[in-house]
Specification:
about 110 residues; about 60% helix; elongated
């Protein structure tokens, strides 16, 4: 079962979707303008937007759903996971780099 984190990371794994998100962070945008900005049209663009919408990264507005806005809230979930694991990875790395010296009188 996919989690919100899975959906967010999946959506951000693709460079085209990251570019779409960057375009949308500038403000609400029509689908045609997104297509022009990222060079993706038709079904490919629809698939990208659907993946991002499933992750909660974009929201369709207007009666026709043709205006898209970014919602950066799901980034908090990803950032929390990354930061938590970064701390654990850093601690683990530091622990591995510490050399353990034998106590006085112990065999080497």
């Amino acid at each position: 079962m996919a989690t919100a984190l899975d959906a967010t990371l999946l959506a951000l794994a693709d460079p085209t979707r990251r570019r779409i998100f960057e375009v949308l962070l500038a403000g609400a945008t029509r689908v045609a303008e997104i297509a022009d900005a990222v060079g993706v049209k038709g079904d490919d663009l629809c698939e990208h937007l659907a993946t991002m919408e499933a992750a909660g990264l974009v929201v369709r507005q207007g009666q026709d759903g043709g205006t898209i806005t970014a919602d950066p809230a799901p980034l908090d979930i990803a950032a929390e996971w990354i930061n938590t694991n970064r701390e654990l990875w850093t601690m683990r790395s530091q622990m591995q780099s510490v050399s353990v010296e034998p106590a006085p009188g112990e065999a080497q």
